[in-house]
Amino acid sequence: MNQFRSRREYIFKFLIISFILVLLWYIYFQASTYITNQKVKNNQEILNKQNADLEKYKQSTWYNKLYLIRELEKSSQTMPRSEYIPKIISILEDLKWIDQSWTGENDSIILSDFKVNLNEISLKWKVSNLKLLYFNSSSWKFKALIDRFQDLDFIEDMKIKTYDKVWERYFEFVLNAKIKKNGK
Asked: What is the DSSP letter of 139?
């Protein structure tokens, strides 16, 4: 009977230890699940807050402008306008200087409108004499306005559709030209 009793005690001890181990494993599992859920909940709150901040950020005007600028930069080729405009202004200055030497006046050439976009340049001019547009003189080292613009390396397909007489003194015209995609 002793042997039977010791076997029962052994089985009883084994069952108690097994029960305690299962209980400890259950407690550990429940605790780790709770901690994991808390971490998930905290991370979800942080994510929701960051999403709300992102939506506010996207709704702001300056973000939309920045986004549009970046999209435009991706879809367009670079255009060194900082080089284009001074070339055109230097042509105007040369013509004004030559015009003053011819007529003694300072308002024979008037640039009234100047537009540059990615594809086209448009200049609205008033001139007192059409010679300023077409007259070339190698002895005076003078090149006509039309020829000067045609010589610009970033301009192509230049057109002047009409001339209008305004104020009985000026001829008004709009010079339109396309900007070359790979112009320098």
From this structure: T
